[in-house]
Design a protein that fits this description.
By secondary structure, the chain is an alpha/beta fold. The protein is 27% helix and 27% strand. 50% of the residues are buried.
Length: 264
């Protein structure tokens, strides 16, 4: 009984820390028809023992409240257990707008095909080094999904192969480290996760350690300008769940991104 009460209190604390964060992004070369496009970004949901069911349901509720045109999910739907695949699919059912997903390292460590099937059954597109085109305002938005780089399943060239000219190019990647390569191939905006905003985020120290480990993009918005390519934006979300220990100073979020056309 005491354990149940403790779990319920912990779940309520986590729900209070989960918030909808709103960001207006000034996008270079954004198609004028996509000015005002709203994208809900969910990542690192980690359905499993350490992420309460109520936390995931609250994230879905916040996503509906944001009224996005598109919803994107950038991987790590599970933690370590295959047993949670069906629960994950049910908890994430009914997300609003066109829904597009890519996989993360935890999904590949558990059951990538099982995760993919569970998401497809909900009517969601799962892109594994592939792209799709949706229309907004009568103009094409090309969504490029790069498979997980942490486990070596990424193929940026394949993901971008055949992307049509015109419109706006949005890239999804679990690992933010692929942002430079995606922007060099024409993405104007890259959305990623994986870092949990540092997870245990000690000011200045966590970021310094991350940089020494080769991770330049810990959380938030970055202007990325690969050599010889036009500048693009990268947004790295702190995500929703946890696969190991509880978060500290890295509060969970559902991010709502409103795209704005940058002045010439």
């Amino acid at each position: 009984m005491l354990n149940l009460a403790f779990a319920e209190r912990r779940a309520r604390r986590l729900e209070r820390r989960l918030s909808l964060t709103r960001h207006e992004l000034s996008i270079p070369d954004l198609d004028p028809a996509h000015d005002g496009l709203r994208i809900a970004h969910l990542t690192d949901i980690h359905v499993g023992l350490l992420t309460p069911r109520s936390q995931v349901l609250r994230a879905v509720e916040l996503t509906h409240a944001a009224r996005p045109h598109l919803t994107v999910l950038t991987g790590d739907f599970l933690s370590y257990g295959r047993a949670f695949v069906n629960r994950m699919g049910m908890l994430l059912s009914g997300l609003p707008g066109e829904v597009t997903c890519v996989l993360g390292n935890h999904d590949h460590w558990t059951t990538p095909e099982g995760v993919t099937d569970a998401l497809v059954r909900q009517g969601y597109a799962v892109l594994r080094n592939a792209h799709r085109t949706v229309l907004h305002g009568g103009r094409p938005l090309h969504i490029v999904g790069i498979d997980d780089a942490i486990t070596g399943h990424h193929d940026v060239a394949r993901a971008f192969a055949g992307v049509p000219e015109g419109g706006t190019v949005l890239a999804l990647s679990h690992a933010p480290s692929l942002a430079d390569a995606a922007i060099a191939r024409g993405a104007r905006l890259v959305l990623a996760g994986h870092t949990h905003g540092g997870h245990i985020n000690i000011p200045r120290i966590t970021e310094r350690i991350a940089r020494r480990l080769g991770n330049r993009y810990l959380g938030g918005l970055y202007h990325v300008a690969p050599p010889g390519a036009r500048e693009g934006l990268l947004f790295v979300s702190r995500g929703i769940g946890s696969s190991t220990v509880p978060r500290a100073n890295a509060p969970a979020e559902v991010a709502l991104l409103t795209l704005r056309r940058a002045a010439p």
